[in-house]
């Protein structure tokens, strides 16, 4: 079996070798103050790393083909659909370990836990 050699990507200014294209972009931005802007063709948002632009396009402007079976709202990701379904099921998977109150969203539980922390500080 033939072995494949890994491609080395070099800085175009100082020729420092890097393993990944995004590392070169970051290096050129930080070390040589050269900014590569990758612009979204839909909303004009800019990214310094091409992969971040691709992720943005997929997650923000992608096809909403994940449909809710209850109300037919559509989502780009399974994660978005799963979070939405909590509204229909009433499921509250995030439970406070102090008072056992439950929440549908993790960030709501975190806000609730801060209230417990504030009470402990005040007493």
From TrEMBL:
Keywords (A to Z) from UniProt: DNA-binding, Metal-binding, Nucleus, Repeat, Transcription, Transcription regulation, Zinc, Zinc-finger
Cellular location(s): Nucleus
SUPFAM superfamilies: beta-beta-alpha zinc fingers
PROSITE patterns associated with the record: ZINC_FINGER_C2H2_1, ZINC_FINGER_C2H2_2
InterPro entries: Znf_C2H2_sf, Znf_C2H2_type
GO MF annotations in UniProt: DNA binding; DNA-binding transcription factor activity, RNA polymerase II-specific; zinc ion binding
GO cellular component labels: nucleus
Domain (C2H2-type): residue spans on this chain: 38-66, 66-93, 94-121
Function, as annotated: May be involved in transcriptional regulation.
Official protein name in the record: Zinc finger and BTB domain-containing protein 7A
Organism in which the protein naturally occurs: Papilio xuthus (Asian swallowtail butterfly)
High-level lineage: Eukaryota, Metazoa, Ecdysozoa, Arthropoda, Hexapoda
């Amino acid at each position: 079996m033939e072995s494949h050699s890994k491609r080395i990507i070099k800085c175009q200014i100082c020729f420092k070798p890097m393993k990944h294209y995004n590392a070169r972009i970051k290096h050129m931005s930080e070390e040589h103050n050269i900014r590569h802007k990758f612009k979204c063709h839909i909303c004009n948002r800019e990214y310094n790393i091409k992969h971040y632009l691709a992720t943005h396009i997929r997650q923000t402007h992608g096809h909403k083909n994940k449909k809710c079976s209850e109300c037919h709202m559509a989502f780009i990701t399974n994660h978005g659909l799963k979070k939405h379904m909590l509204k229909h099921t009433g499921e509250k998977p995030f439970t406070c370990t102090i008072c056992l109150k439950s929440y549908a969203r993790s960030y709501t539980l975190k806000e609730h836990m801060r209230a417990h922390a504030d009470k402990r500080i005040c007493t």
